[in-house]
Design goal:
Blueprint (H helix, E strand, L loop, with lengths): L13 H18 L1 E5 H17 L6 H15 L2 H15 L7 E8 L6 E7 L8 H7 L14 H16 L4 H12 L1
Antiparallel strand pairs: 1-3, 2-3
Length: about 180
């Protein structure tokens, strides 16, 4: 029975698991999305989301530097901590939680392992607010076609009359097409 055993061990000892999650979290912060197994992605979500929450806490300089130290104790990567506090933190400041998204990608051909992509939600342009703003003006419908203006119908009728008046040899057809294009 597994009563109260909520941690996903991932088939590793504690030190190995912490090193794995630290490296995955650093990669996720620097690259904004990574592809890994589904079990590792789910374990990474529970590991990295509290760290992302820590970046939002702290109004004074002492509190902010303390949070830097706390996050560094988990990640052990100065570049990832700097990226987290300078790039990621301002984007997630208004979000109340749920900073990551896991998307299942199927199975790996070699060992049939389930593959998933874990990404930071605010850094995805496809699902984000910027994609909605770009998609709004491109709205089109197929129900009705626009009415042809009088000028385009007049040009079309003169071209049809010119085609009917000409003889139908191959050289004459080519010259008619050039006249119609003009």
């Amino acid at each position: 029975m597994r009563h109260g055993d909520k941690i996903k061990n991932l088939g590793r000892k504690k030190a190995h698991r912490e090193a794995l999650l630290s490296n995955l979290a650093s990669a996720l912060i620097t690259h904004k999305r990574i592809v890994t197994t589904l079990a590792k992605a789910k374990a990474l979500r529970t590991y990295v989301e509290p760290l992302l929450t820590k970046t939002k806490k702290g109004e004074t300089k002492e509190q902010i530097s303390h949070q830097h130290r706390v996050v560094f104790s988990y990640l052990q990567n100065k570049a990832a901590v700097k990226e987290l506090f300078t790039v990621v933190a301002p984007k997630i400041a208004s979000r109340p939680g749920g900073y990551t998204r896991i998307i299942k990608l199927g199975i790996r051909p070699g060992d049939n392992g389930e593959i998933a992509m874990i990404e930071l939600v605010d850094f995805n342009e496809i699902y984000g607010k910027t994609a909605n703003a770009a998609a709004e003006p491109a709205k089109k419908t197929r129900r009705g076609r626009p009415k042809k203006s009088a000028e385009t119908t007049a040009v079309a009728t003169t071209t049809n009359e010119a085609v009917q008046a000409e003889p139908t040899t191959s050289t004459d057809i080519a010259s008619t097409e050039t006249k119609a294009a003009e």
